[in-house]
Design a protein that fits this description.
alpha+beta; 2 domains; repressor; Flagellum_FlbT; cell projection; cilium
């Protein structure tokens, strides 16, 4: 079943490392095969890192978007995961799940769980930029 994306006007998405943008009007498109993707509002910029949870999100994002650098970033992930475990013992189950998902190369799902750990933990802090977000994609009818 293809994956349907709906982009807001001027919104961008990264698909397998390529940045694709919508024009002045909303648009939709379909992915018919497996691809790595992040919408612009899901991308965390390095200067936005202000807590250990965002540091963890950022390194998972790097593994996901730049698979050619995965070996180095997986080493960074292991170190940052340890720091996060020390700083957030209350999130042990989420961190265990994130670790399992990264080991299984399910980076998008790991990012989604990591976003829930951002300060506040409410719907307004689910996206890396602090904005509320809708689902990443909708299944095609």
């Amino acid at each position: 079943m293809p994956l349907k994306f709906v982009l807001r006007p001027n919104e961008k998405v990264i698909i397998n490392g390529a940045v694709i943008g919508a024009g002045d009007r909303p648009g939709s498109f379909f992915l018919y095969n497996t691809a790595n993707f992040l919408r612009g509002r899901e991308v965390l910029k390095e200067e936005q890192i202000d807590c250990i949870e965002k540091k963890l999100y950022f390194v998972i994002q790097l593994i996901y978007i730049f698979p050619e650098d995965a070996v180095l970033n997986l080493q960074r992930f292991a170190s940052i995961l340890g720091e996060t475990r020390d700083a957030r013992p209350d999130c042990r189950d989420d961190l265990d799940e994130i670790e399992r998902l990264v080991e299984a190369r399910n980076y998008y799902r790991a990012l989604k769980i990591c976003r829930k750990m951002f300060k506040g933990g409410d719907a307004s802090s689910n996206a890396p930029d602090g904005t509320a977000e809708s689902p990443a994609a909708e299944p095609a009818p």
